[in-house]
Amino acid sequence: MPNQQDKLIKWMRLSKTFLLNLAAFLGFFALEYAAMVFIQGSVYFSGQHRYGLLVLGLGLAYCFVRFGLQAIKDNKAKLSFSLKKIAWPTKSEFGTIIAAYLLGWSGMVIWNEIEILFFYRLTHGTTENQSAIDNIMQAGGHYALVMFSLIIVFLGPVMEEILFRGLFFRYFKSVKFPWLVVVLSALSFGLYHLSSYTWVSLLDLPPYAIIGFSLAYVYKKTDKLSSSIIMHVFHNGWIQVISIITLLQH
Predict the structure, then answer these.
(1) What pLDDT digit, counting tens, does each position of 182-212 carry?
(2) Are 148 and 136 in contact (CB under 8 A)?
């Protein structure tokens, strides 16, 4: 039977490991956030300032993707960005992706109906984040429309899946409570997408957390980052198409 000193040493080691992992995750979070701030912030400028911010943001995004994937691999093997070397989902895993997405989307629809019935005066049927994106695309001209579309459909899903799935599972993986990591990943993803942190904005948390749970579930079940990225790209893609069509009609 381990004595109290052995338990204390073990607890201290676990605490140190957790703090180091938390620091690493927060470092990657700051890098991803900074990249997005510069890229999205370029919309508010013109000329050399706009493209300077864009280049800086894309450079940070490249660093995040490169070092993030390296951290997920957890080895010193040479990292390749070749599409041929990506572990794509199998046919059966695509079935898992489709089923998880349909369930997640159903949950989002149910929450949307609840919002319309009880909270429409507060939310107006959309999230603060989506409303802000639509306003920027509408007021920012063609550059904003193209830039935000590329971010929302492609760059955003890749970076967010690396952060909230690959790195989150890498640093906070639990043998005793494996599904707790899925839930926490979903909640972190939801909180990340809130435009503000007021009581009203918390009404936007459920839909993002629901789709976040589906993405985390798919990643856990297939053990492939490509699975959650594909699902994320598809989800953001068709929503962005509808948003663009709506904006062009006004």
Answers:
(1) 999 999 999 999 877 777 778 889 999 999 9
(2) yes
Is-contact 49 189, C-beta < 8 A? Answer: no
Q: Which two tokens stand for residue 39?
A: 């890229």
Contacts made by residues 115-121, CB under 8 angstroms, sequence distance 24+: 115/203, 119/203
- Asked whether the predicted pLDDT for residue 77 surpasses 50, the reply is no
Spatial neighbors of 56 by CB under 8 A, at least 6 apart, are 38
Tokens coding 205: 């948390």
Say how many Å lie between the first and final Cα of the chain, rounded: 72
Please tell me the number of Cα atoms within 13 Å of 230 on its side-chain side.
Answer: 20
Put simply, whether the predicted model's pTM sits higher than 0.70 gets the answer yes
Give the span between the Cα atoms of 99 and 93, in whole angstroms.
Answer: 10
